[in-house]
């Protein structure tokens, strides 16, 4: 990916990097809490999605290229240690914010500024977050009944964060990576 040249897109990449980094850590924390609450599959779902957010942070960081100096980075992110139903709501809210507001705006800005690398990184994240919101909602429906979700192996594309339950697909439908590179989160 070519390094970013325009300041506005660079700001958005740094903010998105911060947001994805926090989401990665937050999902690991919530995953551990889900395990303790007796929902190992929901815990595993959190860990798989945490890995996808890491892939997004990785892309944003790399597109920024080499930059001198320190930056203060402002990123949205929710906080809270609740029960698994509440933590999944945090996940749903965060993903929906990314899907409905953050990434569409960032993506349009990258396009406007002809920042191809950033455009790709934002597109990858946006597509994965749509799947994440859906999976968290499914998990929450079970957790509300006091049940763990039934969950096959979760496969995550390390290139774009595309997340597939019960795959793997031959080729990543978002970025075209071969399934052999997917990371599997097995029972
Ligand atoms: Fe996500
Ligand atoms: Fe992919």
Automatic annotation (TrEMBL):
Pfam families: Rubrerythrin (PF02915), RUBY_RBDX (PF21349). Residues 3-147 form the Ferritin-like diiron domain. Keywords: Electron transport, Transport. InterPro entries: Ferritin-like, Ferritin-like_diiron, Ferritin-like_SF, Rbr2/Nigerythrin, Rr_diiron-bd_dom, Rubredoxin-like_dom, RUBY_RBDX. Its cofactor is Fe(3+). PANTHER family: RUBRERYTHRIN (PTHR33746). One of its GO terms (molecular function) is iron ion binding. It comes from the Bacteria. This is Rubrerythrin. Signal peptide: none annotated. Residues 152-185 form the Rubredoxin-like domain.
